[in-house]
Amino acid sequence: MRINLDGKWKFREVGQNEYYEASVPGCVQLDLINLGKLPDPFYATNEVLFYDLEEKDFEYVKEFDVDNVDFQVKKLVFEGIDTVSEIYLNDHYLGKTDNMFLKYEFDVSLALKKGKNILKVVLLSPIKEAERLKSIYQSSYSYPQRSWIRKSQYSYGWDWGPRILQIGIWKSVYLELHNGLEIQDEFVKVESISDELAIVRVFAKINCFEKPSEVEIELFDGSFSVKVFPEVYKSKDGYFIDERIEIENPKLWWPNGYGEPSLYEFKITAKTSNEAQEKKVTTGLRTVRVIKEKDEYGESFIFEINGKKIFAKGANWIPADSILPRLKEDDYKELIKMAKDANMNMLRVWGGGIYEYDWFYDECDKNGIMVWQDFMFACAIYPDEFDFFVENFIKEAEYQIKRLRNHPCIVLWCGNNENNWGFRDWWHIGDPEFLGNRIYKKVLPEILAKLDPTRPYHISSPYGGEHPNSEKAGDKHTWDIWAGWKDYIYYKHDNARFVSEFGFQAAAHLDTMKKYIPLKDQTIFSKTLRMHEKQEEGLERLIRYMAGSIGLPKDFDSFVYLSQFVQKEAIKLAVEHYRKNKFATAGALYWQLNDCWPVISWSSIDYLKRRKALYYESKRIFAKFLPVVEYEDGKLKVYIVSDELEPKQGKLNITIWNFDGQKLYEKNLTVEIPENSVVEAFSEKVENLNILKGEWLYIPKHVETAVIGDKIDRGLLESIVFVSLFVDRVEYENYFVFEKPINLELKPSQFEYRIEDDHIIIKPKTPAICLIIEADRDVENNFIFARPEKEYKINLNG
Amino acid sequence: MRINLDGKWKFREVGQNEYYEASVPGCVQLDLINLGKLPDPFYATNEVLFYDLEEKDFEYVKEFDVDNVDFQVKKLVFEGIDTVSEIYLNDHYLGKTDNMFLKYEFDVSLALKKGKNILKVVLLSPIKEAERLKSIYQSSYSYPQRSWIRKSQYSYGWDWGPRILQIGIWKSVYLELHNGLEIQDEFVKVESISDELAIVRVFAKINCFEKPSEVEIELFDGSFSVKVFPEVYKSKDGYFIDERIEIENPKLWWPNGYGEPSLYEFKITAKTSNEAQEKKVTTGLRTVRVIKEKDEYGESFIFEINGKKIFAKGANWIPADSILPRLKEDDYKELIKMAKDANMNMLRVWGGGIYEYDWFYDECDKNGIMVWQDFMFACAIYPDEFDFFVENFIKEAEYQIKRLRNHPCIVLWCGNNENNWGFRDWWHIGDPEFLGNRIYKKVLPEILAKLDPTRPYHISSPYGGEHPNSEKAGDKHTWDIWAGWKDYIYYKHDNARFVSEFGFQAAAHLDTMKKYIPLKDQTIFSKTLRMHEKQEEGLERLIRYMAGSIGLPKDFDSFVYLSQFVQKEAIKLAVEHYRKNKFATAGALYWQLNDCWPVISWSSIDYLKRRKALYYESKRIFAKFLPVVEYEDGKLKVYIVSDELEPKQGKLNITIWNFDGQKLYEKNLTVEIPENSVVEAFSEKVENLNILKGEWLYIPKHVETAVIGDKIDRGLLESIVFVSLFVDRVEYENYFVFEKPINLELKPSQFEYRIEDDHIIIKPKTPAICLIIEADRDVENNFIFARPEKEYKINLNG
User: What is the pTM of this model?
Assistant: First the structure.
C-alpha cells in the first residue's frame, strides 16, 4: 500500500516562528513565490532577490494520518530531496540526505504511528554544507563549492542560467506499507534481433519472505498480448527471474526518421500467499553500438541502431526550468514533440543538469529520440579522492542506472561533461588519478558492467583520441567558434568525428524578451538585458557576430531578429558541413535545444517554448534529405545528403535570381540518391550560369596578413540560388548566397500576401534571405528564405 | 667626387613604348600618382587599383653627362633599390639587385664614359621573382611569397597596412669618383664611463693605395673641440686607426626623462699626397646592458643605461608611409618629437618594416629615444636552408650594422619579430634548425660579435624563458587581449618582464577618417570603411570592446570617438598596471606609435600625424610621475610610480565627486617618493570616504560559471576619484571610476568655457570622464577627464 504524502505541507525558515503554506513536490523558492513573498525571479533582475536564500535553512512539516500500521514493511520514501536535509518522523531522527539524485528510503517501523504523524524535513543550506565538507576534508585541491554537493550544477548559475539554488523536496514523498513482496531491479535486455526474431531476457528480483507462489510476465505489443510464466530462482540475495523470451516478427524501435519507435510493455506480476504486486516495463527492441573503427581520418564514432549506421541529428538538453518542480508531463510532451518535429533523432542530457524526470525518457521512447545520457558532473574537478564522495555517487549511479536502463531511447552512458577536456586544457593537470577520473575511469565502468552491459559507455564528452577534444576520434565540442570568437565560416574546417556540442547564441523570441524585460530596459545594453545574458562577454559576442555577418541592430526588436538570423545562418552552415561530411562526421548535436529561463542563449526553443529562427531552420537542416549548395573552385555545386536507408530518385530544381526578382538561371534534374550517403548532384562553372556581369567589385577579405580587396564579379553579389528537391512528393529546400549578407548587394524584398482561414499565403515578387512573420503565436514556418514563383502557404497555428 | 643622379628620370612599363617622367628617389606607384595615371591609393578603396602593378616590370632610365672620368676609382652607388632589378650603364650589364635593404655599389670603370651616359634600371616583379626562386629551390616547406624576397614585409599588406608592393629606386643614386682614399667602417665605441671620465675608441679603415700622410680626429661636444692625431696601423686588409680617447667630465647621453641626450661629433680626416677625405660620426656617450638576473618571478629583463635601471616607455614604430619615398626629414622630426613629448623613451623598429632612414636615428639620438632595432623578418618562416638567402642576408646585416652602430639611440639588436613564437605556437614546429633560426641563432650572433659587441642581442621579440612568449623571462607580446578578444581588464593579470607589444585599436582622427572615406561611405560597415581596417575581424573587435566598455555608437562620428575612448582607457589600464609593477615588469611599448596610411589601427598618431585620444593619454601615463588609483579589498589606494632617479617630495590631492558635481571627499597629503620605484601613498576604506549610500545596486558580473548580479553600493557607481600630484611644481593627474562606464550611473557633464587668444579655458561644473574639444587642428590636451574646481587652459595650437 502506498500512502502519498505530496500536496499541502507547511514551512518556515529555521529560527522564525510563523509557518507558511508549502507544496510538495516543490521548493522554498516556489513556495515563496506562491506566497507572494518573492516575485517572479525571471522578470527583470529579480533573480538577485533569490541569492539570500542560499545561506538559509528551512523546515518543512507534514502532518498526516495513518489508519493501519499493521504491515511487516514500513518505508518512508523520498523520490528526491534537494539536497541537504535531516529527516524526522514524530521526532525520531530518520537520517540525513545529501544527494539530490538519489531516492531515499527510510525504515519507519519504529517511528510510524497509527493516527496522527508529524514528518519534518530540515533543509540545510547547500553553501554552508559545502563549506563544512571543505573544512573537514582539507584537500590540497581547491574544488569549487558546487563540486562538494551532489546537486544540479547549473543551479549555481550557468552561462545560460540564473543562480537559483533550489532548496526543497523536489519529488514525491510517500509511505510504502506492505508485507515484504516487492519486484525490484526489473530489466528487459535485448539479446539479439533480426527481422524474424528478437530474443530478450527479462530479469527481476522478487523480494519476499517466502517463495512467490506465482510469477507471470505479460508481453503486450500494442495489439496482442502473450503471457509467459518464468521460472523463479533463488540466490543468496533472494528470489529472482531471468527469463529468455523469443518474439517473432518483432516490431523494432527505430530512431525518428528511420521507422517507428515501436514499444512493448512487459508486465511482471508476482504473488505470494497473502500479497500480489506488479511492475510494468515499457521498452523497445533495438540494438545499439558505437562503431569505432580505424580509418583514414583516425577512428570513427558512429551510432549503429539495429545494424544501421545513424547520423545523429539533434541538440543538447538542459533542465527546462530553473525551478524544477514547476515542470509537468505536458512540458516534456511538448518539448520532445518539438524535437521530433524538427527532425532530430538524438538529445544529449547534459551533465550539469539532472537525470531527467521519467516523463522525459518516456517521451523520447515514444518519439524515437535517442538519448546520450551524461552522469551529472560538469566543468569542474570533483573530490573523488574521498571515499564519502565516491560512496555517495555509487548509490546515485546504481539508482539512476536501474531507473533508466529499460528506456530504449538511451543509447549511451557518458561519464561527465568536459571534465577530461578541462584536466588537459583548462586546469593543466593532464590525466589525473582522482579529481573525478576515479569515478569516470574506474567506478562507472564497473557499475555499468554489472547493471547495464547493453549500452556503450563513454568516459566524457568530449573524449577520444590523443587529445580529449580531438577531431581524430571520439566526440568533440567545437567551441573555437563562438566561445573562441572565431568566425562561423570556420565550422567548415571542423573535421570532428561526432560533434556533441557546437552552438551560437540568439535572443529568445521577441515576445518572450518583451515579457521579461521591462519596457524601459528594452535597450541593448541595459543592465536588465545584460542580466539575461549569462555568458561572460556573451552580449559582446552577439554584437561581434552580427557586425561580421549583417551589421548592427538599429533597435531592440532588430537586435532580437538579427541575433536569431545570425544564429540560424551559423548553425545552418555548420550542420550542412557536418552532414555533407557523413560518416567521417557521424553526428551533430547543437548546443542547446531548450532554456531554463528567459535568456539570450544558444537554444533554438526559448523558455516559453517559443520558436527561435533556428528552430524553424532545424526542421530543414535535419530533414531526411538535405540539398547543400557550395561554391567551390569557380563551380556551383549541389550535394544531396540522404539519411534514407533505401536508394531514392529525386527531382532537383535549381534557380538563380537577382535581388530585383529576375530569374537568371533554371535547371531541372532527376537525381539518383544512394542510400544513407552524400551525392554530388550538380556542378557547373559560374560562367555558364548567366549570373556574371563582367563588372568587378572588391570586398574586404582576409588574405594571409591583411584584409585586402578581393575581386568579385558584381553578379555574384546580386544573386541568390534556390534549390528544391522532391523525393516521394516531399519538398526539401535550401538557398545559397555567394557572400555573407554584409557583402551582398541586397535589396528590400517585395511580396504580396493574403490571409485565408488559418493560413497566410505569401507570394514573393523578389527573393528574400529572411522573411519574418510576426504573429501572436508561433506559426508553421518562419524566417523564410523566399523564392519568387513559389507560393508559401503557412499555417498560422503552428 | 660625388655626382648625384637623383631627380628627373624617365620610366615605362616593360613592353610599352612611351616613357613618362619619373623621380628618383621614388617608385612606380608614386610616379604613376604624380602623372595622374593612378589616384591616391589611400582614398576610399583606391588601394585595389594598385594590385595590378605587382606582376609588372618597369624600366627606369637616366641620362647624364660626366665631364671628367679621370679617376682611379669609379663606382655607381644605389643607396636602395626596391627590390629586384637589373642594371645597365651604356648597355653594359652591371649586375642584379635583390635586396631592398642593401646599398649596391658597382664598379663602372669600364662602362662610364666621358660625356653622355645612359643608366637603365629594369625593375622586375617581386611576385614573379618569388615564384622563380620557389620553383628553383623546391623546398619541402611552403614559405609565403614574401619570405623569398628581402623586401619590406608590410608592403605585402599587413593588419594595419594596405597591400602596395612598392617597386622602385627608393633611395639616392650617385657616382663616386676618386683616386682611392676612403674612410670606411668608422665606429666610435664607448669603453667605459664615469662622472669624471669616459673612454672611447675610435676605429676606422682608411682605404688608400699609399699610407695616408695625415689622419686627424676632431672631437666636438657642442661647445669645445679637441683634436687627436691617431696612429695609423697596417693590416692585411689595409690601413686603419683604432684610437683610445679619454674624455673628462663627459656629458652623457641619457634617455628622455633622465637627463640630456648629449651628443659628440667625431670628425675623422685623412689625407694622402693627392686626396683628402673626412667622415663625421655623431654619437653619444652611454653604456647599455640588459639586466638578466634570476629573481622570484623568473629572470629580469631591464634596460640599464649608464648604470641606471630604466623603465622603457614607448611604442612600436612602423614605416610612416606605404610609399616610402614620400617621407622627408621633417616627417621624422615631427614624429620623434611627438614621441618625446608623449614622455616616451623607447621605440621599437619592428621587423616587418624597414631599417629606417638615417633621419629616424638622428632624431632619436637628439631626443633621447632609445631604439629597439629588429632585423627585418616578421611573422613567417624564411628559407635560410638555402645559402643564397643567407649570403644575401649577411651582406644586408653587415651593411646595416655598420650604418647604424654609431647611433647611441640603438640599445638592442633583435633577430626578428614573432618568428620564434610562431615556430612554437602557430606553425607547431618547435625550435627548428632552419626556417630563420639559422640566421637568428647562428649568423647574427657571429656578425654582431664582430661588428658590434657593444649592444645586447636578442634572438626574437618575444623571446626568453621556456616559452618564447613567456612572462617569466625575456620580452612578451601580450595579445590575448585584443587579438584574443579577451577583455582589457585582463591586462592586470599580465606579469610580463617586458612588454614589447600590446595594443588596442581605434579609428584615426575624425578629420582623417572623413578626408579618406567618402561621405556616402561614412557608415560603420561600408565596404570602404572596412577596407580601412586591415585586421581580420578588426571591426568586430572594435565593436565588441565598445559594447563591453561603454555601448554602441549611434553614428559615424561617435564610432570614431568611442573607439578612441576605449583604446585610451584600455592602454591606460595596461600601462598603469605595468608601471606599478616596475621592475618586475621593466618596459611597456604599446603597439603602435604611428600609421603608414589612413586606417583604423592600434596607433596613437594617425597617418596625417593627427593625435588620437591615446596620444594625449600617453603623455600622462608615461610621465615621470604617475599616480595610480586602485580599489583593492574594500580600500581605495593611491600608488605613485616614480621614474625619477632622486627621491622627491610631492603634494597629493585626492578628491571624490559624484556626477552631479558634489565634492564628497578631499584629502591633501605630503608624500615622500623614493627614487625609481613605486610607493603606496594613500589607503582608506571606502566606508570612510563619504561616498557609500547604503543603497545596493546589482551589476552584471561574471563569477565562476555565469554572469550574476554583483551587489554594489550605488555610491560607488555615482562617484569619480581625481588625484593630482605636484612634484617640483609640475602637476601629474589621474582619475578613477569604480566600474566600466557601461555600469556607471553617468550623467552628462556640465561646463563653461571661453576662448582667450589661442587658448580655450574650460571650467567643469560637474565631472566628465571624457571631454572632447573639436578643433581644426590638434590642441594641447584633449579627451580630458575633467574635475570641477579646476580650470583647464588648453592651447588650441597644440
Answer: 0.94
